[in-house]
Amino acid sequence: MTDATATPQAAPATSLVAADARTQKRNRAERRFRAYGMAAILTGLFFLVVLVSSILYNGVGAFQQSFVNVPVYLDPAKLDKNGTGDIEEIKKVSTFGYAPLIQDGLLSEVQKSGIETPLTKSKDMKNLLSASAAAEVRDYVVANPEQIGETVEFRLLASSRVDGYLKGRVKREDVADDKNISVEQLDLTDQLRDAGIVSKGFNLSFITGADASESRPEQAGIGVSMLGSFFMMLVVLVLSLPIGVAASIYLEEFAPQNRFTDLIEVNISNLAAVPSIVFGILGLAVFIQFAHLPQSAPLVGGLVLTLMTLPTIIISTRASLKAVPPSIRDAALGVGASKMQSIFHHVLPLAMPGILTGTIIGLAQALGETAPLLLIGMVGYIASNYPDGFASGFLDPNSAMPAQIYEWAKRADPAYYERAWGGIIILLVFLLTMNAIAIILRRRFERRW
Amino acid sequence: MSRFTLSTSALAILAVSATAAAARDNVQVAGSSTVLPYASIVAEAFGENFDFPTPVVESGGSSAGLKRFCEGVGENTIDVANSSRKIREKEIKACAEAGVTDIIEVRIGYDGIVFASQKTGPEFTTFTQADLFNALSPKVVIDGKLVDNPYQKWSDFNADLPDVEIATFIPGTKHGTREVFEEKVLVQGCEDTGAYELLKAEAEGEDDKAKGKAAHKACYNVRTDGKSVDIDGDYTETLARLDSNSNGVGVFGLAFYENNTDKLKVATMADVAPSTETIASGEYPVSRPLYFYVKKAHIGVIPGLKEYAEFFVSDEIAGPDGPLSDYGLVSDPELAATQTLVADEATMGEGM
């Protein structure tokens, strides 16, 4: 930018080639300012990188899970004592009856593959396997009772400690006081991995599965609360889009300009800035205590988030209606269209990309919101049941993704900490997708005048 | 267009609320966040082993759970309240007023409360109640007189303790754990150091009993100069505070400690190490019973309720080798009595 010194008003005494002191000073100021801006951007980028890398570093583990391949002999003497094959008789054997069979199976597999270990009792195998293993085998037997008496190969979840060890989260030197795993069991884990009996794989059930109790973090998934979030977003979309658009069309196109409409406008802008927890208290008082809607239900969550999203949608809709040039309206009215026709046939379609962008951004904001859910009982709830239908999806107690992440972060077992970060990754993917859709819509359909 | 979507959305809401009155087929549980992990372990195993749906378990605290429990009888009220303390007279009364008269009280076992510090931190390995009282109380006894607590370091009052600044993280007053901490640690320490007698002499009251009560209450006080921090969140928050303060001592549940032995080391209390064995035998002094309460009127109405209660206290779940014990619950030596109590549906008052 040094040629900027060649100003037409340059005093005759100064050279055109060398800048004078004043110009140099101004140029220095400009360079300094650019450096500040660059520094600001670099700081922002640095924090972004730190944030993203720490999320990925902590959370990627949740998408991997260790499995143990165990051939289980389904002992008829234990599972079907009378040999009747009656399904009701078989169902009477609880998961506590299955656990020893699986442990025996793993032990014989260990001995067969020639691994030398001081652990020779089948009870020693208990800590290697997830508590969910027995339920998995029992479900299989109840579904296929004819398999009793056979040896069936199962791919079962490893316990969270074994999983953590293979991922490097559980360290050998830390387990001295841990009653959930011993050093010998970790040694055995290493040998089992070398023998191919224990292996890591992609953890689909983390994305689709239900939440689990605190004793088996390896089984927990975010699927059910994802459905909870989905039903909440459905309520938000179905309510806030029509109400928000109708309100903004009326305010923008039809409402007279007077004190009353001014007051409404000011209030809408203020509502957009109200902290979300306030909406939670409102929801608790109005929807649960007054209207007696069920607690922890996505319907109530959706209603509360609708209240929160409405101002965002109204403001962005009004902005995009305002951006449609008056000539469009005038032209429509000029060829004889009624006011309503001019709006619905011409103005609204042109404003649609802006409205949709605002709606999607409002929804994305609502999706990540935890504070209002805290008060209506969606936090602290174990989302272990899939809703069994459309109506129950709205009304049965459920959690939501951010609430589930918060819940996991609170739990005692460190394996849940990893799940919480994994949940954050999934939530971020959702938010990024929604924002990307908003950007694409704007790019493709927005018209500039 | 917007009129159309408006009316359809209104229709959808109507249709949804119409199905709200449908009958309930699952057990609903709410209450203590301390009992929540145990209840969710049981609920999960219950769903796996029975044809009934998995019970719905919510937390929210003992008091909140009992309040919802006492709202009345009927499908829109909860069936079971988990509690980390015994139900209070006031709550029984509130229950009776709402029509909940037959309550079955089930004790599931004991929960130990432990004092732990950073694994690599100073050697906090033995505490007595008196040590903690001296560290935490605003008034302590020095040379037979009650004075404002001058202690800045643990070694100031007990040369065996590390020479580091006092920093403790104790549960906030909304926690049930705090109550146990006050009763079993502070009051005991108060008596051991002789502060109780001095406080009683100072206390105002009509007779000896009232004075004793006031002194008892004064023993609960905790210094407010920043040496002791109330944690209103859960144990994860306490753990985070300890992570950033190597001299800190925190209060945890036994189950939480046992899941985080890689970061924490535990201290003995009055020379007894906390473990499920010492708590079950009563040697370890800081423990409390955990309960759940069942509405008798709902048995037979809500499918699976009695089966859930029986399953909860069965030997394979709550026994010394069961999953609850694995997680950190101290099994109740009188479990068999509890099992008959549940089987007979003995309500409070008649069965106890």
UniProtKB/TrEMBL annotation, chain A:
Compartment list: Cell inner membrane; Cell membrane
One Gene Ontology molecular-function label: phosphate transmembrane transporter activity
Membrane topology: Multi-pass membrane protein
Transmembrane helix as UniProt keyword: yes
Secretion signal span: none
Chain segments carrying region Disordered: 1-23
Compositionally biased region (Low complexity): 1-14
CDD domains (alphabetical): TM_PBP2
One of the protein's GO biological processes: phosphate ion transmembrane transport
Protein name: Phosphate transport system permease protein PstA
Species: Roseovarius nubinhibens (strain ATCC BAA-591 / DSM 15170 / ISM)
Lineage of the species this protein comes from: Bacteria, Pseudomonadati, Pseudomonadota, Alphaproteobacteria, Rhodobacterales
UniProtKB/TrEMBL annotation, chain B:
Superkingdom, natural source: Bacteria
The entry's keywords: Signal
Keyword Manganese among UniProt keywords: no
InterPro entries: PBP_domain, Phosphate_ABC_transporter
Signal peptide as annotated in the record: 1-22
Domain PBP, first and last residues per copy: 17-316
Keyword Signal: yes
Name of the protein: Phosphate ABC transporter, periplasmic phosphate-binding protein
